[in-house]
Amino acid sequence: MAATDSAVEIEPEIETSAYGEEPDSAYDSEVASYTTSLASNVTNYKEEHGRRYHAFENAESAGYVYPNDEKETDRLDIMHKLTEVSLGGKLNLAPIPADAKRILDIGTGTGIWAIEAGDKYPQAEILGNDISPIQPKWHTRPGGWVEFIDLDLTWTSPDGSLEESHASKKFNNEFIRASREANIESCPGLYLEGWMKDAGFKDVKAEKFVWPVGTWPKDKHLKEVGAWNFLQIMEGLEGFTYALFTRNLGMSKAEVEVICANIRKEIKNPAMHAMFHLHVAYGQKPEA
After folding, report:
1. pTM of the predicted model as reported, rounded to 2 decimal places
2. Cα distance from N-terminal residue to C-terminal residue, the chain
3. Alpha-carbon span 230 to 20, nearest angstrom
4. Alpha-carbon distance 214 to 170, whole Å?
5. Of the candidates 177, 194, 171, which has an alpha carbon nearest to the alpha carbon of residue 274?
């Protein structure tokens, strides 16, 4: 943040503690106590069904019910690669100028997108933000570009090979139902374009990309996308379902594991051509 020439005034109504001007061991002790407490609040993760979840009290109310353990961070990195392959090797679709000064990555996950964006935009200050007790203020400048990327998690097939009787489709229907009961929109990709237009962005453009579940497509590019998608689903099934299905559908851990086993068996079958869609929408903030 740029400094200003004006002096910073101390709020007169804020009383200070009775410490002297010189370094004080009592003060050092108090600072250490507070910082230790804050660090504990952030890292005191919850363990549930053998998986680690965010410690923040607002995580579930904010619509995030997925783990944050090493297995999940591996999956998030796979998702990053999957998305990059899906977009033809691009980090973003919005025409961000090469000399961009500031870029915000909301929902940065492991930070891998922000790190690669730093290589692509070396002049930019890159800020990655995710679930945290402190949310920084950020305002897009007039003329600045905003890009949103998210999924429509409705599983379908181009040839009817995914039927309502399949365990995978039953799971998908239950996942969407449980998510909405938890006030989580599991298919936000469908609404990105409309949300951006409603928010007043101009020149909004939207694109949709197929994410096959597996390597069943003949197209070489889609086959690669499907391979990465297959991998992240196989890695993430329990993480997607443990908290959501046990908390919101009243299932036991054992019941969830049976569902996951049936899905794994089905998606290994090349005759089932399941897929869902990635949506990207981007636009500019109007000039003032």
Report:
1. 0.76
2. 22
3. 62
4. 18
5. 171
Instruction: State how far the Cα of 150 lies from the Cα of 75, in Å rounded to an integer.
Output: 16
**Contact 281/205 with Cβ under 8 angstroms?**
yes
Instruction: Give all strands (DSSP E) within the chain, no chain letters.
Output: 46-48, 51-53, 102-106, 125-129, 145-156, 202-212, 275-284
Whole-angstrom Cα distance, residue 213 to residue 229? 6
Bridge partners of residue 38, in order along the sequence: none
Nearest Cα to 127, choosing from 98, 105, 107?
A: 105
Q: 105 pairs with which residues across the strands?
A: 128
CB atoms within 10 A of CB 109: 18
**The pLDDT of residue 264 is above 70:** yes
In contact, 279 and 153? CB cutoff 8 Å: no
The 10s digit of each residue's pLDDT in 14-67 is 343 444 545 455 545 544 554 444 445 555 667 888 888 876 555 554 567 788
Tell me the residue type at 47: E
Using DSSP's 3-state secondary structure scheme, residue 285 falls into: coil
- Rounded to whole angstroms, the Cα distance separating 97 from 172 reads 39
Residue 189 contacts residue 276 (beta carbons within 8 Å) = no
Tokens in use for 272? 């089932």
User: pLDDT tens digits, residue range 173-206?
Assistant: 999 999 998 888 999 999 999 999 999 999 999 9
168: its two tokens: 């995978």
